[in-house]
Amino acid sequence: MRPFTYSRANDPASATKELAGNPNAKFLAGGTNLIDLMKEDVERPSAIVDISGLRLTEIKPIAAGFAKGGLSIGGLGKNTDAANHPLIRQNYPLLTQAILAGASGQIRNMATNGGNLLQRTRCPYFYEVAMPCNKREPGSGCGALEGVNRLHAIFGASEKCVAVYPSDMAIALAALDAIVKVKNASGQERSISFTDFHRLPGDTPERDTNLAHGELITSIDLPPNKFADKSYYLKVRDRASYAFALISVAAGLEMGSGNKIVQARIAMGGVAHKPWRALKAEQFLAGKEATAENFKRAADAEMADAKPLEHNKFKVELGNRSIVLALQMAMNGGKA
Amino acid sequence: MQDKNKLTGTPISRIDGIAKVTGKAAYSTDYPVKNLAYAVLFKSTIAAGTIRIIDTTAAEKAPGVLAVITHTNAPKLNVNGGIRGGALLQSPEIEFYGQHIGLVVAETFEQARYATHLINVTYDKKEPKVDFEKLAKEATLPKDKERADAKRGDAKAALRDAEYKVEQVYETPIEHHHPLEPHATIAEWNGDRVTLYNSSQIVNGAQSAAANTLNIKPEQVRIITPYIGGGFGSKGGQWANLVLTAVAAKQVNRPVKLALTRQQMVNSVGLRQRNHQKVSLAATKDGKLTALAHEITTHGAIKNEFVEPCGDCSKVMYDVPNSLITYRAVPMNVILPTYTRGPGKSTGSFALESAMDELAYALKMDPIELRIKNEPERDPSNGKPWSSRKAVDCLQVGAKAFGWEKRKAEPRQNQQGNYLIGYGVAAGTYPAHQRPTSAIVKLKRTGNDVMATVELAAADLGTGTYTILTQTAADALGLPLRNVKVVIGDSDLPPAAGAVGSVGAASYANAVNDACQKITDELLTRSGKQFFARPTASQLMLSEKLTEFQTRIDAKPLESAEEYSAHSFNANFAEVSVNRFTGMVRVNRFLAVTGAGTILNPKTARSQIIGGNIWGIGMALTEESILDPRWGNFVTRSFADYHVPANLDIGDMEAIFIREDDQKSNTLGVKGIGEVGIVGVAAAVANAVFNATGKRVRELPITPDKLL
């Protein structure tokens, strides 16, 4: 860790202003990732602006009549509170499941909703500063590309970076078509659709998201949906808790009459540099019957484009099976 | 020895429990030493080569920095003084990635850590030897005579002629000990004597290693280690961090604290080496073993060798006329391997007991029956009679308690929803030894109250040493528990064995018991009276109206124990469920049945056994340290990457102890349970996975990808 200045922001306007004035400044919310990275010398901010005291913690219906407007989740609310909020448990159980599948109770008590989206990859080459990593040090190379890459991407990677994005919560948010609301130093607000929030690595893996420097996540908005009782978050991992996903699948099935799928929402974690919307699988399922065979064909359609690396070839088969299982579990309302 | 009227054998809660949960128990870094300076290590970023230039100019000028110590200015140390793993800043040579190449001492920890970022190192790199797959071909006979080829009969010929045989290779990865308390030291010099607050499983071993390496006398070193936050072998031998803290404190002329980070633990304090084990079993069609060959290939460090004894279980478990056990090792650019959780036996039993399961399946025989059929009357490796052996009882009692009869002989026959259910069994053993240990017992009477203090340089890894010694002394002196105080973990106390290799309880409890018997004898002699029944020391203190009395004993193992082969034995039973889509394995139930002689405290013993079982489940399912073969660095540097089991991974755990009176091994019949808890566990889980899925995984850990 290197010396830095610390200040505590009293309101969003002063927080964003302080950041805007210094390209090396960082917001500190829960600190569960940033502080770790500072200890590892990966993040080297010259200034820390503590926003943990800002009151952007509310969970509330967006408009009168919840069913119409959906739900707004404060950017600085704690993960634990979001997971356990009755309106979320009732209307977005997919989100509850995904949050509770991540990290540990202690970490979720500290971690914020906005901060969760901004987690950086757990690629070991990113974490150890002596290793090459284009994300940490553009131009230094990718340690994982020809290194130990069992946990790495099978979709959307580039020669520059094969890292995966680690959040569970965000995988559910992708399936829920969430909107990220942000505010900058000039007081301008904008809404970023979830699919546009995170980036693929391309030639600029150092950029994880499309958030501009100094923009503050004020809320994450969830539109209403019709699959709360037919959704499931499946996380496949090397141990039962406190492990990042090998593969995860957030699935929701909006059903019409006679076992017909109106629309499917499927997002995958552990496969790409961002939450991976399985659009091919979704397209395949729209209007089809919810059968084991169709689930399998949807999975085949999605996984056909996977490009595994030396050590993660298993993710293609595992991804396929996981899509099928998550859809099956969603259909059964989460029961095996 | 388990007597209803005794405190030993009763499940009392640990004496030091309250101090621990309230934070009052002081671990190494908790001592309120005044005027502390802080040291932070910095480490090599290559695995092989030499340091050409190490530029510390900027670091030395950084705020708060008191000293930067590297090989260019470190004092001369004795590299053969007993510190393991090198890295003592004595030369520019790099032998493994993450070798200590210096340390910064500063007024604060943060200043020291920051200054390490300002050091520039230029290396002359060499190609590191870290790709075990490639290097294994070059492995040769280890120097250690204990690892020489052990042959009995002609195993190869018997295998050639076998009716039934299994020949398979089993792989176990590098593992790390990762105790919750990372290694940490405070060094404080007082004239030419240094006090080292340092977690040490072998108090006197740490003392002599530090003294020899620092080129001073053992009496100039005091080790204080009343509590240890886990060690698992990594705090048995001592590593460079201990001595470098003393060097730093001398250099800056004030006390220095040095604590390793979790990330530094992977290349500072040893590791469990990777093992490639070929096991060949031959048997008649009715299941009598005719040959057992266990051929092990592994690695050491680049200069020094340590080969864990993976063939040990194969030496003693089964009656087999033809046996072959061989070791081959190759140097590798990694930190020196060392004793780790059931050294050799845990990894070796994975191979042997998996092979036994494979043989049972080939023979269409129940795996318990196969084991019982090959039960040896004597120790097959040396012909000695057993001091006692409860291996068959463990299997039979366990089978009944676990509901083994519900197991389907064929795999994939038990499906519940999306889960395949399987049962597995595996046996295990660990040798039992008592080691020389001295102890002082002091009695003090105030009115009608007699207090006892028992002192010895024993260690408590957190397993219950304080508790069992309090129970032992209370029984032997005729005192209630609250009147006994146990003082351990200090090299100024009488020398004791280490809390290693399952020798702690037997060595310490026998020494304390002997000391208490001796003090009673001395009080009897002093009284000059004859008694109908032997009075207790406590009664004698009262009747003789003594205020203080003490004695010391240098307890030795029974000479007659040498005539016997003494081991603890166990049987492990696992029920797993495997998600048939994802390959995720869960151990629903686990039962360990153990015959380990006298159990001094069934409560702490149970904790220790299920702790070993959980480590075994970790070995089976999750633990693996992964090297990048290009650079020799571990990519698994934190608890996020190195997966030890979490609470959610663990189902119902049950421990049963078989009653076993074994006064042939030592006076109290204590055989030790520290290591045996992990032995056989990984095989029981892997065998259950086979029973569930029909997939035989011979390469640990059994992660989901291996079951797709």
Automatic annotation (TrEMBL), chain A:
Pfam families: CO_deh_flav_C, FAD_binding_5. It comes from Spirosoma fluviale. The lineage of its organism: Bacteria, Pseudomonadati, Bacteroidota, Cytophagia, Cytophagales. Signal peptide: none annotated. Residues 1-227 form the FAD-binding PCMH-type domain. Keywords: FAD, Flavoprotein. GO terms for molecular function: FAD binding; oxidoreductase activity. The keyword Flavoprotein applies. PROSITE patterns: FAD_PCMH (PS51387). SUPFAM superfamilies: CO dehydrogenase flavoprotein C-terminal domain-like, FAD-binding/transporter-associated domain-like. Coiled coil: none annotated. This is Xanthine dehydrogenase YagS FAD-binding subunit. The keyword Flavoprotein applies. InterPro entries: CO_DH_flav_C (IPR005107), CO_DH_flav_C_dom_sf (IPR036683), Diverse_Substr_Oxidored (IPR051312), FAD-bd_PCMH (IPR016166), FAD-bd_PCMH-like_sf (IPR036318), FAD-bd_PCMH_sub1 (IPR016167), FAD-bd_PCMH_sub2 (IPR016169), Mopterin_DH_FAD-bd (IPR002346).
TrEMBL record, chain B:
The keyword Manganese does not apply. Transmembrane segments: none annotated. Residues 22-127 form the Aldehyde oxidase/xanthine dehydrogenase a/b hammerhead domain. Pfam families: Ald_Xan_dh_C, MoCoBD_1, MoCoBD_2. The keyword Zinc does not apply. This is Xanthine dehydrogenase YagR molybdenum-binding subunit. Keywords: Molybdenum, Oxidoreductase. The lineage of its organism: Bacteria, Pseudomonadati, Bacteroidota, Cytophagia, Cytophagales. One of its GO terms (molecular function) is oxidoreductase activity.
